[in-house]
Structures are given as C-alpha cells and as structure tokens.
Prior knowledge:
The structure holds two protein chains of two kinds. By secondary structure, chain A is mostly beta strands. Chain A is built from no helices and twelve strands. Chain A has strands at about 1-5, 10-15, 20, 25, 30-40, 45-50, 55-60, 65-70, 75-80, 85-95, 100-105, 105-110. In chain A, strands 2, 5, 6, 10, 11 and 12 form a six-stranded mixed β-sheet that branches. In chain A, strand 10 (about 85-95) and strand 11 form a beta hairpin. Helix content of chain B is about 0%, strand content about 45%. In chain B, a hairpin with a 5-residue loop joins strand 6 and strand 7. The chains are: A mainly beta, B mainly beta. The interface between A and B is medium-sized, with 22 and 29 residues.
Amino acid sequence: xxxxxxxxxxxxxxxxxxxxxxxxxxxxxxxxxxxxxxxxxxxxxxxxxxxxxxxxxxxxxxxxxxxxxxxxxxxxxxxxxxxxxxxxxxxxxxxxxxxxxxxxxxxxxxxxx
Amino acid sequence: xxxxxxxxxxxxxxxxxxxxxxxxxxxxxxxxxxxxxxxxxxxxxxxxxxxxxxxxxxxxxxxxxxxxxxxxxxxxxxxxxxxxxxxxxxxxxxxxxxxxxxxxxxxxxxxxxxxxxx
Lengths: 113, 118
C-alpha cells in the first residue's frame, strides 16, 4: 500500500522569498516520487522525479526536492518565488510494480507581489 | 512533438445519458492511463493499459465505467447512465512503457475533459 500526505492545503509567499511545500509518503516498497504542477485550466506538468538515484533532485523552473528516507519526506523547495509559480502542486508516489500514480491532495501556492 | 490530446475539452450531459471521452496518447507511448480529478476525491486512478496486456481496471468506481484502447493507441472512456457525482475532470496520461525493470517512466498528461452532469 502507498499513500502521500501534503501537509499544507494552501501556502502563501511573497515574490522573491523561498518556497517550501511539504510532502510525506508511505510505501511498502522503494518508492518513486514526483512533483507535478497544475496551472489554472492547464494540464499537469512534471516538475521533478526521484527514482532511487541522487536524493537531491533538481527540476524545472528552479525547483528541487530532497528524498529523506528516515523522515519519509519529499519536500519541494525553491529559493526565490516568482509570480508565475502560483499554481497547484501535487506530490505523487508509486512503486512496488504499481504503475498507477497515487496523488496527494494538492497544495495551492499563492505568490504575493 | 505533439503531446497527449483529449476530446472534447468540455462536455455537459443530462443525468442518465451515456458519454464517451477520447484520448490520443503521444505517438509511440505504449502505456496509457485514465485518472479523474474531482473536488471531493482529488486525483484518482481509474484504469491503465499497457500494450496488448489485460488492462488494470482496479480504479474504476463502478461497472458504469469502461474503457478500451484500439490498436494500442487511441483510448475511449465510456460512462453509462451518468450520475451527478460523475462530474469531474477526466485526465489521460501516457508513458513510453510500463517501466520494466522497476523503473517508473514519467507520465505525460493531457489537458483533460471537463464533464458536467446536470
């Protein structure tokens, strides 16, 4: 069984300040973990993925995430928020031969000018 | 190249009617997935196709839902006797393969079909 918990449903930051979106996972197997972003009325876009290589994963648009097995976490960070980062972010887990993705409930990121 | 496309982009139907939603995966992708995004349930898996193998239907919520994939490419999701709780955005994704050897391939998502059942 696997699941993912996004600890914040909404996060608001000021432009130019750091972003932290928190995600904890549960998996009976070595997980593959992803972060997807969904802009309003747009499709889901992959930001980054972890598949048991380096624990610090760099993605697009300056985002990165660190896989911490001891904490079962995969938090998403960005040093400096941009207005265009305002969107909904989903933490996703899969693994153990299961190909379907299990999504978290999403975190809506607001970026204030 | 072209991404995953879905049609229609929006569909309004009356309770009790049948609807068909179409997905065109990225050319050459052998794996195809359907998901549903609704306010109450978030994003949830529905069904998965891989090549000529029997599909994984474990996420279908009821026997009113079915899907097929013709020629290993285009897929159609059919909802019979629609109910108001079927209102959601239906998302299709494809990936290059099923990720043999344990490697999870990236899934590429289409823009979705927004279904409203009145």
